[in-house]
Request: fold
Amino acid sequence: MYKREQTIKVNVGPYTLGGTNKIYIQSMTNTKTKDVLATINQINELTKYGCEIIRVAVLDKDDASAIKEIKKRISIPLVADIHFDSELAILAIKSGADKIRLNPGNISNKEKIKEIVLLCKEKNIPIRIGVNSGSLPKGMELNAQNMILAAKSHISILEELDFHNIVLSLKASNSDLAYEAYKLASEVFPYPLHVGITEAGTEFSGLIKSSIGIYRILSLGIGNTIRVSLTADPLLEIKAAKEILKEMHLINNVANFTSCPTCGRTAYDMIPIAKEIEEYLETVHKNIHVAVMGCAVNGPGEAKEADIGVAGGNKEAILFKKGKIIRKIPENDIVEELKKEIDNF
Reply:
């Protein structure tokens, strides 16, 4: 098995996938790529919350040409998502894409594949081959072994052209199938793996399915980038990805948040305070543990490992650090005071 640190190193913009490098968080815009301003705004918002690689759909020449302008006003690598059309791949590369998602087996013109490969070599751009469970060749039974065969057929085209700057994904909407496919892939291919559960669902069910599926795959010691695919605002994908990596201790410089479920002992309006602080921490890029607890009796004890925390009393809260009580804060000032403590940490 090729563990994540044993995979071939592949550059995507300023980042290096594979080897001992970190696992990168990826998402995809849901704007029309040719709507340059909307796409730029969405990418920059996702970047603010921790997105590190962004993918955009390229459906026509206007989308491909728009990449040049988009690239001027974003700060993370951009992946052009292309299906079947070699001309769009060529135009996207010339427009400045940092990586393309393309299955060469879907392009009949071998000379065009060669042209794409030569351009990618010239610009040191990788190609991500994406095999989805829903897009296997006709007549091929859906199982992990056949997903690997489909990947081999695409990869062999590139390898025959002496191109090895490859990233591979084998997504499925069934998390068990995805797990088996990625496990087999890690035993066969030395290339970095982009991990995800495709078509996972909406915000509620999709988060649960993706979290379980991605956790299982990453727990094998494989996976170099991840995307949580949701029928929802892409911002939720970034938040979920960060939580998965954080719980697996695979990410640094992110805040950890703890809050209790509340009970009859809670004497202040805790839930909106907890929500506001959690949202505030989503853009805090530092290793800090913050707790919002329901009662002053158990709060500092149950959350004594927190760097900073509050526990409620009657219309007030106590501020504590590493379990040590520091001072009392009136209820109306809790959020403001806690944000100050976070900023000064």
